[in-house]
Specification:
Shape: elongated
CATH topology of one domain: Leucine-rich repeat, LRR (right-handed beta-alpha superhelix)
CATH superfamily of one domain: Ribonuclease Inhibitor
Mean pLDDT: 88
Oligomer: single chain
Helix content: 25-40%
Strand content: 5-15%
Distance between the termini: 79 Å
Structural class: alpha/beta
Order of helices and strands: EEHEEHEHEHEHEHEHEHEHEHEHEHEHE
Low-confidence stretches: 1-15, 63-87
CATH architecture of one domain: Alpha-Beta Horseshoe
Strand order of the largest sheet: 5-6-7-8-9-10-11-12-13-14-15-16
Largest sheet: 12 strands, parallel
Number of helices: 13
CATH class of one domain: Alpha Beta
Number of strands: 16
Length: 418
């Protein structure tokens, strides 16, 4: 039979792949009553599959499956004239009734969450087939807390290439290492639908960060990327920063808890001088310190895109607060600055308060959990008399501010939150 290229097979594998003859270079089969197919359980090379072994309960009619003209001769040998091809994917042999019921129950919802169910790579084949390939409603898939390896991820990413509706994928706590990260990053370079990827709390490491950096240089769709808690470190940040210099789509990057020091902050600050798209940068719970804050603050003076910067829990002191105060005097786009749980005292607060008097764009400043006393709180309250733009100035967990001052200031200006 003259076969066809790139056609999937909707039949269970009846022989070892090695027993199936390979297709000819022209993607034809010399044997009668055979079709040239790609079988998902064989190699990437097409093989000749006997028509007699097709499962008629699963397969569409042969002419529909391959868009071919079928002619039966007097010897019952089938010949064909190929026009176009259509891939047909085999339903999973492996079964998980509980998982299948969850998918069936939620088949009409745009968001599917299957958290912490100890799902394996075999289960991912079920998810890929029923929730992604055969569902054009689903836009957001959350598989956090499952055990996903390279094979499982391949099922998902292959299916996502066929689904143009799925735009958000969340894989928190999924034991994703650098090998799995490589496959996912490679797949991103071919995916034209996904706009949000959340990999919070995995183990992609430096190499994983490098793989995603490569993907960012070739992916024109991804807008939100969360790589928080992934042991990336300064070396991994360097790869991502280099990618940011040329990336024109990413608007939000979350890198909290990644062992980033002042060196990593310098890499990011340098990238932001070139990047014209990033709007939100989350760097909380790292060890950037005063020097790292200086690099970022210097970039803020001329940056015209960033609207949110989160630096809480980064060992930033009064010196760092001074650098940030200098930057917000000239920056015209930053809306939210979060510097909670650092080491900022009254001296640092005075720099910030002075800058706030003339700032016309910042709407939120969070100084909770710092070393502010009554003096610093009063200084900030005075700055708000001149600033009518800011909507909230938060100082929760300020243990050195007396309850009397907290009450007085809160009543006087509702924008002050203790």
């Amino acid at each position: 039979m003259v076969g066809t290229q790139n056609v999937g097979i909707c039949a269970f594998l009846w022989k070892f792949c090695s027993h199936l003859p390979p297709c000819q270079s022209s993607q034809d089969c010399s044997e009668p009553n055979h079709i040239c197919v790609h079988h998902h359980r064989c190699s990437q090379n097409p093989v000749c599959y006997p028509l007699s072994m097709l499962d008629e309960n699963i397969c569409p009619p042969i002419p529909t499956m391959t868009n071919i003209t079928v002619t039966t001769t007097t010897s019952n040998t089938i010949t064909t004239s190929v026009t176009t091809t259509t891939a047909v994917v085999l339903p999973p042999v492996y079964r998980n009734p509980v998982l299948e019921k969850i998918i069936e129950t939620n088949k009409n919802l745009s968001r599917l969450e299957i958290h912490f169910q100890n799902l394996t790579d075999d289960d991912m084949e079920i998810v890929a087939y029923y929730a992604i390939r055969n569902n054009q409603i689903l836009t957001s898939l959350d598989l956090s807390g499952n055990r996903i390896g390279v094979d499982g991820l391949k099922y998902l990413t292959d299916a996502m290439l066929e689904n143009k509706m799925l735009t958000s994928l969340t894989l928190h706590y999924s034991s994703i290492n650098e090998n799995v990260a490589k496959h996912l990053a490679d797949a991103l370079q071919h995916n034209e639908a996904l706009t949000r990827l959340d990999l919070h709390n995995n183990r992609i490491g430096v190499k994983g960060a490098q793989y995603f950096a490569n993907a960012l240089q070739n992916n024109a769709k991804l807008k939100i990327l969360d790589l928080s808690s992934n042991i990336i470190g300064d070396d991994g940040i360097r790869y991502l920063a280099d990618a940011l210099k040329t990336n024109t789509e990413l608007v939000s990057l979350n890198l909290y808890t990644n062992l980033i020091t002042e060196e990593g902050a310098q890499h990011l600050a340098d990238a932001m001088r070139y990047n014209k798209r990033l709007e939100r940068l989350f760097l909380q719970n790292n060890i950037i310190g005063n020097n790292g804050t200086r690099y970022l603050a210097d970039t803020l003076k001329t940056n015209t895109k960033l609207i949110t910067l989160v630096l809480d829990s980064n060992k930033v002191g009064d010196e760092g607060a001074q650098y940030l105060a200098e930057s917000i005097r000239s920056n015209m786009t930053l809306k939210t600055l979060d510097i909670r749980y650092n080491k900022i005292g009254d001296n640092g607060v005075q720099y910030l308060a002075s800058a706030l008097k003339n700032n016309t764009n910042l709407i939120g400043l969070d100084l909770s959990g710092n070393e502010i006393t009554d003096k610093g709180a009063l200084c900030l309250a005075d700055a708000l008399r001149y600033n009518t733009i800011i909507e909230s100035l938060t100082m929760k967990n300020s243990k050195n501010v007396s309850s009397t001052i907290k009450q007085q200031l809160s009543v006087k200006d509702h924008r002050l939150q203790f």
